[in-house]
Amino acid sequence: MPLNPAISLEALYDFGLVDADSTVTSAVSPTPPETSRGRGGFALADADGDPPAPPLGFRAIFISDTHLGTPGCQAGALLEFLRITESDYLYLVGDIIDGWQLKRRWYWHQLHNDVVQKVLRKVRKGTQVIYVPGNHDEAARHYVGVDFGGVAIRYEATHVTRSGQRLLVTHGDRFDGVVTCAKWLALLGDQLYTLILKLNQHFNVARARLGLPYWSLSQFLKLKVKNAVSYINAFEEALAREARTRGFDGVVCGHIHHAEIRKIGEVLYCNSGDWVESLTALVEAHDGTLSILRWSEIVAAAAGAVPDSTPQRASVAAGP
Fold first, then answer.
1. Burial zone of 18 (CB within 10 Å; 0-12 exposed, 13-18 middle, 19+ buried)
2. Domains (ranges, CATH) in the chain?
């Protein structure tokens, strides 16, 4: 289905990408050049954007929390990931564009446009792309049921694995009590998270000069602060309970920027992580195996080394 210009311009208005006197082409910030090589400056595609080796093939790829429209988005790494992977299905599991941040401060780098164009190119090449909006891109929920440039926008989705498991695909924000009951607190937390990312960026510049790997302050706090751990556990259990109640075998979500695959009772819980810090995706292989794929591991494998600081890829066979 061809892209509807009227819908696309109205959507850009909703996200705050253009104002009433602007054109779509003006929605790109004249920001300093970013590297398209991802974290660590390592490129896996050639100058034409094509992978030097056959692409990594999967039956399905799930990505979430890319937060396009923010300086924290690792758009270079995400673009490389999209270039070197192929799949029958590509699920965009919410918070793809960060409307909250764009309303506060303008930022839209050319690389962010490149990511969008790459997704649309995958549609043209036959990939089924399903977009399930989250809370940061909640404006897209006005278009649920519309095929936008060939991208199916849905409130939630059902993915059936090769082995027949039915997975509920949802961003997960409606299971977050802070977002649903106290949005002002969620907005405040978002600003604090942005501040932590800025501090972490300066800290990791110093670490890089010492030859040390990337280290995430926010991930450290999430896993070490008792209340944060309790929040994550409660979120995961709420989603698993929803899936079980509705007769699903598992659930795929994002929202909390914490990639994981684990069984909660009889329900398979999968979180695809984010493309701000952890740089992860959930993938289904052609044999039905579900795995967390980490960008750092892809780069390390291409360079002929495995990073000691990065957990090994977790996987689970999606059997009955």
1. middle
2. 5-317 (3.60.21.10)
